[in-house]
Automatic annotation (TrEMBL):
<feature type="active site" description="Nucleophile">
    <location>
        <position position="642"/>
    </location>
</feature>
<keyword id="KW-0378">Hydrolase</keyword>
<keyword id="KW-0326">Glycosidase</keyword>
<dbReference type="InterPro" id="IPR008979">
    <property type="entry name" value="Galactose-bd-like_sf"/>
</dbReference>
<dbReference type="GO" id="GO:0031176">
    <property type="term" value="F:endo-1,4-beta-xylanase activity"/>
</dbReference>
<dbReference type="InterPro" id="IPR017853">
    <property type="entry name" value="GH"/>
</dbReference>
<keyword id="KW-0119">Carbohydrate metabolism</keyword>
<dbReference type="GO" id="GO:0045493">
    <property type="term" value="P:xylan catabolic process"/>
</dbReference>
<feature type="signal peptide">
    <location>
        <begin position="1"/>
        <end position="22"/>
    </location>
</feature>
<dbReference type="InterPro" id="IPR031158">
    <property type="entry name" value="GH10_AS"/>
</dbReference>
<dbReference type="InterPro" id="IPR044846">
    <property type="entry name" value="GH10"/>
</dbReference>
<protein>
    <recommendedName>
        <fullName>endo-1,4-beta-xylanase</fullName>
        <ecNumber>3.2.1.8</ecNumber>
    </recommendedName>
</protein>
<dbReference type="InterPro" id="IPR001000">
    <property type="entry name" value="GH10_dom"/>
</dbReference>
<keyword id="KW-0732">Signal</keyword>
<keyword id="KW-0624">Polysaccharide degradation</keyword>
<dbReference type="Pfam" id="PF00331">
    <property type="entry name" value="Glyco_hydro_10"/>
</dbReference>
<keyword id="KW-0858">Xylan degradation</keyword>
Length: 736
């Protein structure tokens, strides 16, 4: 064995030597070594870690470590330790999107190029981490790419916005009155009669319109259709009791639409228009009052509220819910190519002899949008049935939460031939807050099969910008992804041949397929609000098959012999019986089902903790074994990509580095040995692609990654070997 002298032990020996040589007359005496140093001396007999790998038995295996690139490039102690102990390095952050891509989309690969040159000179390989991830993305740049597009309009063009309208032709008088004159409504007109002049113009006053919306520093126009028995002027005021602006309007003996403009000093939704006519003698009548303001001209457009209108395989079907009598609600199953002109479709089977028309229902559902009463919409779809049949449409909240009996302006009448339905209408008043259209498909008393295809439900929007279509966003982001991947492959100059092509895709919640976990998605709500706000989920724009896009681009621009891994954490999870791993295997099979996409390997991160409670640790050990068994069955290359270990005491508390006992250190050492031995024992030799220790030294107290925890094989600053170094080496060596 090659002996490496521990730095502290060496200093201790020098101290003894110095003391013994000062004077021959000084009596010899012994200094007892501190127990903390003495018990670690056996580690001096260990060689460098990578020397324990049996290359003949595991020809593809590479021992790796995570490294901070800036520290490695100093070519100092970190550089030497990494090169001596490991075959391959993974950059902690330097090769991630946000470390390279600026807010304007420019890419700075300076650190990447230096890292590749330094590693290549040292004969050390690099594992690429990561091409596509939701975290550490430059969200400023990516969101700007898909921001709403400005619409070219005449800068002088204006649109008039109605802030309030009172129509006495159809409404009664409900305003406040101050003074001796009581306005009344007669024959669709508000009538105000004064037989004598009052001392002050405000001695006769009333609110001619209420519930007006006004905005601070906005010029509002008040228009009144009015005539009187005599010509005069009266005062009109707009505002609230605390802030009003006023002026005068003329009254003539002919019907006139009289307008004045008043600048609001407050913002309010309960403002009023008040008339003050104490000096007027005679009768005047009012048909209506309208308050408006002007804004820059806007364009009206429609936005589809359904994610997968074309029902593409791999896309979400959460917008299309099928309720067949006696069965649970399920997303509609896709019928590939069975719609009109080869479109995809879904079908719903109604029951025979129903008790109610709603015994079988189909819902078009917008879980992320609550529609407002009176909101304009446009809807279109293709439809047919196995026999002629009628249907009903209703307003619902969530599917099954009935709100109103009528939704569409005309309900579809089904025939055996495909028909196209399109309507533009408004949400009924009773449907305020609705989220789904329910089609009742048991109007006919016999069992019938109904089909729908290419369903589009759009809200009418207006403004000076227009959102990009889903297709435009996908195209734009594919372009950005192409630039990123091609740039990274060029910067690494063919030297990096193994990559996490996609990192951490699974949500660990939400069900797809046969109950497997969904992908992370801000749109589908499978991530927290904080994660949605701070991350960028490519799959929300490129679809669930975004992995196929990433793999295609990596193989297009990457070097020959490229190996691509999908990497995720908690694959050893005991709480769901390794269900996250089972879900990842499901998704990989799905992505590869196109016959083109090839994913070479699976990366399991394994950020584990050792539990001093034996019962707690036993269940975790069992699921680590099961994880390796499941991985072995895939036939993929298997890599532990980010292995490190914390410590949990018997009471379930996280133990900090300074508090770890010798017994606990040795327990962690044994657990490293267990993990590594099980990897070599269970994963077939030809599929063993490596183990990477994510944080070779203990984590500093203030670190964002497991700060202050004893996760390393070396101590934090002195790089002194720990018991875990021995356990790790024993695991690699296959030592019993």
């Amino acid at each position: 064995m090659k002996h490496t002298i521990n730095i502290l032990a060496a200093c201790f020996l020098l101290l003894i030597f110095a003391v013994s040589c000062v004077d021959d007359s000084i009596d010899f005496f012994e200094v007892e070594k501190p127990e903390s140093i003495a018990e670690l001396e056996y580690l001096n007999d260990y060689d460098f870690l990578k020397s324990y790998v049996d290359r003949a038995a595991s020809p593809n295996f590479k021992l790796g470590a995570g490294v901070t690139v800036s520290e490695y490039l100093r070519l100092g102690h970190v550089y030497r330790v990494m090169n001596s102990n490991f075959d391959m390095l993974t950059a902690g952050n330097a090769m991630k999107y946000s470390s390279v891509v600026g807010d304007n989309g420019s890419m700075n690969f300076g650190s990447v190029i230096q890292f590749v040159e330094a590693a290549r000179s040292a004969g050390i390989e690099i594992y690429g981490h990561t091409l596509v991830w939701h975290s550490q993305q430059n969200r400023n740049y990516l969101n700007r790419l898909i921001a709403d597009r400005e619409i070219e309009v005449d800068p002088d063009a204006k649109d008039e916005v109605v802030d309030g309208f009172k129509d006495y032709r159809v409404e009664g008088f409900t305003g406040w009155v101050g003074g001796p004159v009581q306005p009344v409504v007669e024959d669709g007109r508000l009538v105000v009669t004064s037989t004598e002049a009052q001392p002050n113009f405000w001695d006769v006053q009333y609110h001619v319109a209420n519930g007006i919306s006004i905005k601070e520093d906005t010029r509002h126009k008040v228009t009144i259709r009015i005539k009187g028995t005599s010509e005069a002027s009266i005062t009109v005021a707009l505002g609230t009791w605390g802030a009003q602006q006023n002026t005068t309007i003329p009254i003539t003996q002919e019907w006139e639409e009289v307008s004045v403009e008043l600048n609001s000093t407050v913002t309010a939704n309960d403002a009023f228009v008040m008339l003050q006519s104490g000096h007027y003698v005679g009768t005047y009548e009012i048909e209506w009052v309208r308050v408006t303001h002007e804004v820059a001209a806007a364009v009206t457009y429609y936005v589809n509220q359904l994610e997968n209108s074309e029902m593409l395989v791999g896309g979400s079907m959460d917008n299309f819910i099928v309720r067949e009598s006696g069965q649970a609600d399920v997303p509609g199953a896709i019928l590939e190519g069975e719609g009109p002109d080869g479109m995809n479709a879904i079908k719903i089977n109604s029951v025979d002899n129903p008790a109610n028309p709603w015994d079988t229902q189909f819902f078009i559902y917008t879980p992320n949008k609550a529609w407002e009463a009176g909101e304009n919409y446009r809807i279109s779809f293709w439809y047919k049935a196995s026999a002629e049949a009628n249907s009903e449409s209703q307003c619902h909240g969530a599917p099954g939460s009935y709100m109103h009996w009528q939704m569409l302006p005309q309900n579809p009448q089904f025939t055996t031939e495909w028909q196209y339905y399109e309507a533009t209408s408004t949400i009924p008043g009773q449907g305020d807050g609705m989220r789904s259209i329910a089609f009742n498909l048991n109007v006919n008393p016999t069992a019938i099969t109904y089909y729908f295809a290419n369903i589009v439900w759009e809200s009418e929007e207006s403004g000076n910008t227009i959102p990009l279509s889903p297709e435009e966003k996908a195209d734009t982001l594919t372009y950005a992804l192409r630039n990123w991947i091609s740039g990274m492959m060029q910067a690494t100059d063919g030297y990096v041949k193994e990559w996490d092509v996609v990192n951490e895709p699974l949500a660990g919640q939400g069900n797809v397929g046969e109950g497997f976990y969904d992908l992370k998605s801000a749109v589908r709500g499978t991530v927290s609000e904080e994660a949605a706000e701070n991350s960028f989920y490519w799959q929300d724009y490129l679809g669930d098959d975004y992995v196929r896009v990433a793999v295609k681009l990596a193989r297009e621009y990457g070097p020959d012999g490229l190996k691509l891994f999908v990497n995720d954490y908690n694959l050893e999870s005991f709480w769901d019986d390794n269900h996250k791993l089972k879900s990842l295997i499901y998704w990989i099979d799905r992505w590869e089902s196109d016959g083109v996409t090839v994913i070479d390997g699976i990366g399991t991160q394994m950020h584990v903790s050792y539990h001093m409670d034996p019962a707690q640790q036993a269940v975790r050990d069992a699921h680590i074994i099961q994880m390796f068994e499941l991985l072995a069955e895939t036939g993929k290359f298997i890599k532990i990509t980010e292995l490190d270990m914390g410590l949990i005491d018997e009471d379930g508390n996280t133990v900090r580095t300074a508090d770890v006992t010798s017994e606990q250190h040795r327990a962690m050492s044994d657990h490293y040995k267990f993990i590594i031995q099980k990897y070599f024992e269970i994963i077939p030799a030809n599929l063993q692609y490596g183990i990477t220790h994510w944080s070779p030294t203990d984590s500093p107290q203030g670190s964002s990654w497991r700060g202050g925890e004893p996760i390393g094989l070396w101590t934090e600053s002195t790089f002194r070997r720990k018991h875990t170094y021995g356990g790790f080496a024993d695991g690699l060596a296959g030592k019993e």
